[in-house]
Amino acid sequence: MAERQVAVVIVAAGTGTRAGEVGEAPKQYRRLAGRSLLAHTLDVFLAHPAIDRIVTVIHPDHGDLYAAAIADLAAAARLGPAVTGGASRQISVARGLEALAADPPDLVLVHDAARPFVTAAVIDRAIAALAEVEGALVAVPVVDTLKHADAAGHILATRPRNDLHAAQTPQGFRYPALLAAHRRAAAEGQDAFTDDAAVAEWAGLAVRVVTGDPANVKVTTAEDLIEAERRLDRDRFARAADVRVGTGYDVHALVPGDFVTLCGVRIDHDARLDGHSDADVALHALTDAILGALGDGDIGAHFPPSEMRWRGCDSAVFLADALARMAARGGFLAHADVTLIAEAPKIGPHREAMRTRLAQLCGVALDRVAVKATTNEKLGFVGRREGIAAIATATVRLPLP
């Protein structure tokens, strides 16, 4: 029998309001353990050998958020264009299915973007079941006693839990059957289904429960996000057991001017730092520290000052390149420590702004960044206010060879 083509529809069109305050990014775009929640979910399916195509369905207002989220993925080029979702989950899934219709797969899995802990084994079970039935519902048995209560919270009855299951995703189907079921539901005005198994059941498809995983939880609330980050951090630290530490040092002269840029923060001053780029000694030192941990040369090797295209360049470009080299090897920045050596300007009033900016540039939590400062006790070129120096230490974690 020919190998079956398997596509995945990732549903990421929600606004995620239960996961935080108004104005915060929807939950699927929150950064957890260095990447967006959506990126963690997509990565599982991108790494699965049976998956041929992935369609992500997003909110019409989330194009920029989606682009930023998939930039975290080494295999982002394998993703097709995102599809705009609708006012309900059912409509969003239908649009994702229609996006596959021009070149239909044999099987399709539908998965929630907010379930990053799905495993390859669960995916395998969903796909395998479709050799015998038209639909497969990943689920876990209900173990808690179920109570039926009225609007005031008064218990009306205890419901038997025998044979009850809590639905998870992915939910798998033979693609033509699910597409036909969604089209029929839309034509008949049936729009209140909360998952695809319900659409399939209504259409008369045979759907089988397959063994899910209690750990395959859906991230819904702010508390869920906190717990998800803990789990994702533990997982990635376990995978990246090769711990490297690199150091970097940089110095630039002070010349007449009216501001300096340190750690990406502009500070008014009676002089400026002189250099081929913007002369941000802190970012230069941190870039060299990361490159040192990678054993990948130094900033001058990758961005020669003899090349005019780097004239006046924002030093964040250099740092981003070092971080990209690290990510390409499956690594991440565990901690960054920067010490500035200057008689002036005073660093204290700007320290938190510097930490915040470094954390943003590195894509890490604020507690993984330290910025310190000291004078040179009026000794040497720093003491004479002829320049500013910076020392940086980067702790990088990489997968073992």
From TrEMBL:
SUPFAM superfamilies: IpsF-like, Nucleotide-diphospho-sugar transferases. Pathway: Isoprenoid biosynthesis; isopentenyl diphosphate biosynthesis via DXP pathway; isopentenyl diphosphate from 1-deoxy-D-xylulose 5-phosphate: step 2/6; Isoprenoid biosynthesis; isopentenyl diphosphate biosynthesis via DXP pathway; isopentenyl diphosphate from 1-deoxy-D-xylulose 5-phosphate: step 4/6. InterPro entries: IspD (IPR001228), IspD/F (IPR026596), IspD/TarI (IPR034683), ISPD_synthase_CS (IPR018294), MECDP_synthase (IPR003526), MECDP_synthase_CS (IPR020555), MECDP_synthase_sf (IPR036571), Nucleotide-diphossugar_trans (IPR029044). 4-CDP-2-C-methyl-D-erythritol 2-phosphate binds at D250, V251, H252, H276, S277, D298, I299, G300, T374, T375, N376, E377, F381, R384. The record marks R18, K27, H276, T375 as: Transition state stabilizer. It comes from the Bacteria. GO terms for molecular function: 2-C-methyl-D-erythritol 2,4-cyclodiphosphate synthase activity; 2-C-methyl-D-erythritol 4-phosphate cytidylyltransferase activity; metal ion binding. It catalyses: 4-CDP-2-C-methyl-D-erythritol 2-phosphate = 2-C-methyl-D-erythritol 2,4-cyclic diphosphate + CMP; 2-C-methyl-D-erythritol 4-phosphate + CTP + H(+) = 4-CDP-2-C-methyl-D-erythritol + diphosphate. Residues 243-396 form the 2-C-methyl-D-erythritol 2,4-cyclodiphosphate synthase domain. A divalent metal cation binds at D250, H252, H284. Residues 1-243 are annotated as: 2-C-methyl-D-erythritol 4-phosphate cytidylyltransferase. NCBIfam families: ispD, ispF, PRK09382.1. Bifunctional enzyme that catalyzes the formation of 4-diphosphocytidyl-2-C-methyl-D-erythritol from CTP and 2-C-methyl-D-erythritol 4-phosphate (MEP) (IspD), and catalyzes the conversion of 4-diphosphocytidyl-2-C-methyl-D-erythritol 2-phosphate (CDP-ME2P) to 2-C-methyl-D-erythritol 2,4-cyclodiphosphate (ME-CPP) with a corresponding release of cytidine 5-monophosphate (CMP) (IspF). This is Bifunctional enzyme IspD/IspF. The lineage of its organism: Bacteria, Pseudomonadati, Pseudomonadota, Alphaproteobacteria, Hyphomicrobiales. The gene is ispDF.
